Amino acid sequence: MKKESQNTKVSIQPLGDRVLVRKEEMPDKKSIAGIIIPDTAQKEKSKLGTVIAVGKGRTTDEGKVIPVTVEVGAKVIFNAGWDNEVSVGDDFEYFLVKESDILATTK
Q1: What predicted TM-score, i.e. pTM, was given to this entire model?
Q2: DSSP three-state, residue 67
Q3: Cα 45 from Cα 78, distance rounded (Å)
Q4: CATH of span 3-106
Q5: Can you give the pLDDT of all 107 residues of the chain as single tens digits?
Q6: Cα–Cα dist 20/38, whole Å
Q7: Of the candidates 76, 83, 103, 102, which has an alpha carbon nearest to the alpha carbon of residue 5?
Q8: Distance CA 14, CA 56 (A)
Q9: Partner residues linked to 58 by β-bridges
Q10: For the chain, what is the largest distance between any 2 Cα atoms, rounded to a whole number of angstroms?
Q11: Distance CA 88, CA 81 (A)
């Protein structure tokens, strides 16, 4: 099943409560003295991205499915490590994360 968002076509369908996120560049921060701190030098581990595809949701022990609350196209801040980076054949970085790894949505 293909999902399409912002001219991006991917052929990955996340399972369970997992979400496919395309990483966006975080804006550089400035120190009080006006020095620009690039993303690579910042200590924070969270990333900014756009939701590309979502799974159906988490299944409880009783067999009930609790749907994922984020929607395709949402801008999110998420935690991700090298172990959940996936390749879909284009020049963007993608991460397959659990919904619980999404910290916030942005506008």
Answers
A1: 0.74
A2: coil
A3: 9
A4: 2.30.33.40
A5: 334 444 556 788 999 999 999 998 766 565 566 676 555 544 456 789 999 999 999 999 999 999 999 999 999 999 877 788 888 888 888 999 999 999 999 87
A6: 25
A7: 76
A8: 8
A9: 66
A10: 56
A11: 17
